[in-house]
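User: quick one, fold this
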Amino acid sequence: MPDGSLARPPRLPVTAPASRPLRTASQDLLLRALVLLLLAAAWEGYGRWVDNDLVFPTLTTTLSALVRVTASGELPSRVLTSLRVLALGYGAGLALAALLVGLAVASRLGSALLSTLTAMFNPLPAIALLPLALLWFGLGTPSLVFVVGHSVLWAVALNAHAGVQAIPPTLRRVGENLGLSGIRLAAFILAPAALPAILSGLRIGWAFAWRTLIAAELVFGASSRSGGVGWFIAEHRNNLDIPDVFAGLLVVVAIGLVFEGVFFQLLEARTVRRWGIKR
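Assistant:
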């Protein structure tokens, strides 16, 4: 007999849904792997169609050359040289960018200084400064560090300053009401709020730094003994070892993929995505 009460629907077993960020990351990884496989197949097919290693070697020939120059130790030493110079130039650019952004946030004069310097030097290609750097610092690592730092500085400073300017005034007042000021306000309120823009600047600065370094080594190198990947490519181009040239280019691309698809993705996942600042 119905007692007039509403019948409750049967309870269904509750299953924990899959993590959306993890599922999205896995899908992105699969799509990137598919794209790389398609590009590899296109490379191999076009190389076989050209059938001339002096013009366009096949992927298998390039991989064979890559194994050979890696086993000899030549290419790994050049890669380490380039990465060492990259770290010095990138670090110098970040330090100068942090100084300029700090001045810009602290005062209107600092903001005007950053805007003026950016308008003057940001359009100037870093590689165009290399002849002057060679005159000032000589033929060696300091010249490369100078041009790499120049390529990093303005991209990072612009993005970081734009991120700080985009912070809502209410967020600043909340930090001030909590008794934060000066460095503590910048560390606990301003920096986390501007972190998406800062990470974007770091990523753009890395790309500028890497391609500027390779271009500088291609044109001038550091020296015939201590040059990096760019100098390796230039040397083997002069010797008409085109498979070795393509092997060097493949390493340049692979390092870019590792930094872009692994390092910065992990950094973003552990910061802005984990904190819910960015989806």
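User: anything notable?
Assistant: The mean pLDDT is 81.
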